[in-house]
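Suppose you are handed a protein chain with no further information: no name, no annotation, nothing but its sequence. What can you learn? This example shows the usual starting point.
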Amino acid sequence: MYARGMSNREIVGHLHDLYGVDVSPDLISAVTDAVLDEVAAWQARPLEPVYPIVFFDAIRVKIRDEGFVRNKAVHIALGVRADGTKEVLGLWLEQNEGAKFWLKVMNEMKNRGVEDVLLAIADGLKGFPEAITAVFPETTVQTCIVHLLRHSLDFTSYKDRKAVAAALKDIYRATDTEAAEKALTAFEEGEWGRKYKAIGQSWRRVWAEVIPFFAFPEDVRKIVYTTNAIEALNSKLRRAVRARGHFPSDDAAMKLLFLVLNRAEKAWKMAPREWAMAKAQFAIIYGERFTRAMA
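A reasonable first move is to predict its three-dimensional structure. Written in structure tokens, the prediction is:
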């Protein structure tokens, strides 16, 4: 089910390890090409005209390419519809991300029917802000606060992490942009900012994509900040990738990730409990752009 060159016995064993299910080698042979056709159809399906929120994230996978095992990024777009339910919009595999790659992704989404994205949340992806605003000029681009915090803690020694994380709370819990700016300056001038100068620098570099967060009320901030949806999804994908090790081809990786996504989406039924309040706030903040999504 993953690629030519893998034995059916190996695939059967992998499915058993990953999902605890047993299937026959004959069944594996029958569905091999069908899965790839299904991936192509899913990746080309029409999308909603408006998504209030789209999370963009990536996982790294090892794929054999021209005789070498290379690290490649599989980018995932997770859309939140106007009713708060979730939908994976697509998967894109790319070795080197950048503005050209992201422009291709955005144009693909537009060609599949997306007319507007209100809020795009991503983790400092190279070339991403320029590409999305080239295609969706009214989109607010927001850096993922959770990823920014994790990146900040990567600079610190283990014994200092708890104290540094506590000190950073004053920034992202600030009431507005002005208060956040003062909190960042205070952090930079304080004990931890002086000890770990790279943290303040990393926040400053993406500050233009951090500050939209402070315009949102608490209910919207909670959805933007926690990113539980994309985190839970990525956890499932990473578990599948770890179980496989490396993949013999791009197609093999895409097939497995598609199957895991397909399984995950079937369990998504409810909007987050904060969405009822967030929806009212979105209607005020974005006006007709949001009410179009409700239609």
